[in-house]
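Deviation from plan, reported transparently: 2-acetamido-2-deoxy-beta-D-glucopyranose complex.
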Amino acid sequence: MKSSVVLALGVLASAAPTVAGPISHAAYRPVNVHRRQSVAPDGSTASQQAIYQQAFTDPVGAAKAANALPFIAGQYATGGLYRYNLVEDNTQLPWNANVPFIAEAAVNGSVDGGWQALPNIEGMTLNRTFAVQPGAVMPFYQTQGYDASKVKRAVMVMPGKPRDCWKYTSLVQNALNVYTTNPQSAGNNPDGTSSTSAADRTAKDEVLILGPCWMNSDDAKAGAIQSGELYWHGSEWQSGMASRGPGSTALSSYEVMDAFMDTLFDKTQFPALETVVMAGHSMGAQMVQRYAVVKQPAAYDASVSYWVGNPGSYVWLTSTRPNQNNASCANDYDEWAYGLDGSGVPNYARERVRDDQNAVVQMFAARNVHYNYGLLDNGQGDTACEASYQGANHLERGCHFVESVAALNGNALPKTHTANFMPNVSHEDYAMLSYNISLYRLFEEVPEGASNATNSSAKGAATKGRGGSSSAAAPQALVNSVALVAGAMFVFGLSLL
Ligand SMILES: *[C@@H]1O[C@H](CO)[C@@H](O)[C@H](O)[C@H]1NC(C)=O
Ligand SMILES: *[C@@H]1O[C@H](CO)[C@@H](O)[C@H](O)[C@H]1NC(C)=O
Ligand SMILES: *[C@@H]1O[C@H](CO)[C@@H](O)[C@H](O)[C@H]1NC(C)=O
Ligand SMILES: *[C@@H]1O[C@H](CO)[C@@H](O)[C@H](O)[C@H]1NC(C)=O
Ligand SMILES: *[C@@H]1O[C@H](CO)[C@@H](O)[C@H](O)[C@H]1NC(C)=O
Ligand SMILES: *[C@@H]1O[C@H](CO)[C@@H](O)[C@H](O)[C@H]1NC(C)=O
Ligand SMILES: *[C@@H]1O[C@H](CO)[C@@H](O)[C@H](O)[C@H]1NC(C)=O
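Because the crystal trials were delayed, the predicted structure below was used instead.
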């Protein structure tokens, strides 16, 4: 059973073409695009704009409307049906047209043959000293010269399937530049407009950008991973599997995520931190969604939000699927990493899932999860049978997932979940990340339940770090946030009955 999941992910990994030397991401354009509905309503930009607006007040209705759009990805296509990381990405949206753009760093090696080095990138420092366990270092990019006493939010961005942490780190830097230099850029009102006064907007030095580099065995062989550094097999970092090194280290990528989170919420290190946003697009979004489902509970959970953009597949929360139509995976479509059934769930979460799957699902419902979809993203992505059970392509799976979460909750998304649908955007990471509502989610929104809660073992440190005057408020804030989480779980739990 475990082998079928490994096989599925293996197929996915081998679908990427080999590209030597510094790469162009246009090379990853998938060939197998599934046609969806071909009848009305029309797929015009106007009808997409209507869905964008509807999603602010009625995300489930918007998901249904998006799922009923005709086949539209060909509309603006250049040389194919599927628009992917075109150069126009950084000029497409009005608010980011005039902001200087940091280009993706060049890097030697290839997706299949392994990367030969982690490049230096503008504005960032490559940190190679974070030992998650003795002798197991996790490399990551961090904002150059940040002042920890000023950092109010950390935005951690996951790479895509090519393990291109340098690229996504630069994309988030660019998005932050758009946010900080353009007051029109963040839309936080229900209609997508912005109500935040200039004084309340996040300043650049209040944001710490982190870009973990989830590398694999090929990268270890090719040279990007140095002795003593962590790496995984294939794309298994996205599903929480155990590392394949260094040495005999078998560390779940989700344990590494926990270590990042514990560090960020340690008040002795980041005294002003309020919010951590974990963001990912495509394969990175799969990492974010799966971690958000099975993450071990922590005191600071209500202060963490998850930005999920156009994932190729999901860990589904129930054992039914919208497209249960292919006999070849009829018996294993619900196995990890596509579902919560079976023995394939990584050690990290296996016991909790086996003991009380319902509790895991309720915990997810109480987390701050933001789904983001390009309304032109009808590329197939994950070609596994298990993924096809979730929908034919990225957009359809996303709409189905939103509907399936709502179905567990009286047909509405849990209060802490949102869904947004970006008009005229395909499988385009930067357009997704720099969309106005995304800028708000990444750089401005503080979750309602957020507090300056720290992890339990660092409580004393929190008091010390924040000074005498505020120490009394901290426990109350923690109590409030826990009560809020419990409240959300209660509502969700009730409707499960
Ligand atoms: C849609 O995107 C394309 C490509 O980025 C752009 O040329 C076009 O102006 C956009 N159309 C609308 C209506 O936004
Ligand atoms: C790629 O490798 C060549 C040959 O070793 C080297 O000259 C070049 O600087 C490398 N490029 C990058 C981006 O590291
Ligand atoms: C690298 O990251 C670790 C863990 O966050 C931190 O303790 C260390 O100070 C960082 N190194 C640098 C040079 O900032
Ligand atoms: C955000 O974008 C949408 C779609 O283009 C637009 O309707 C809305 O007015 C924008 N908000 C801001 C603040 O620019
Ligand atoms: C069913 O799944 C298998 C395995 O992924 C795939 O090869 C086959 O094409 C699928 N059949 C259909 C009708 O989609
Ligand atoms: C966290 O603490 C800082 C500094 O004491 C304060 O400005 C901020 O409002 C607090 N945030 C929350 C969400 O309680
Ligand atoms: C909490 O923070 C402390 C101090 O940084 C750290 O040692 C500990 O591992 C963290 N995690 C938990 C779950 O307590």
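Residues 1-41, 72-91, 455-497 have pLDDT under 50 and may be disordered. We consider this an acceptable substitute for the interim report.
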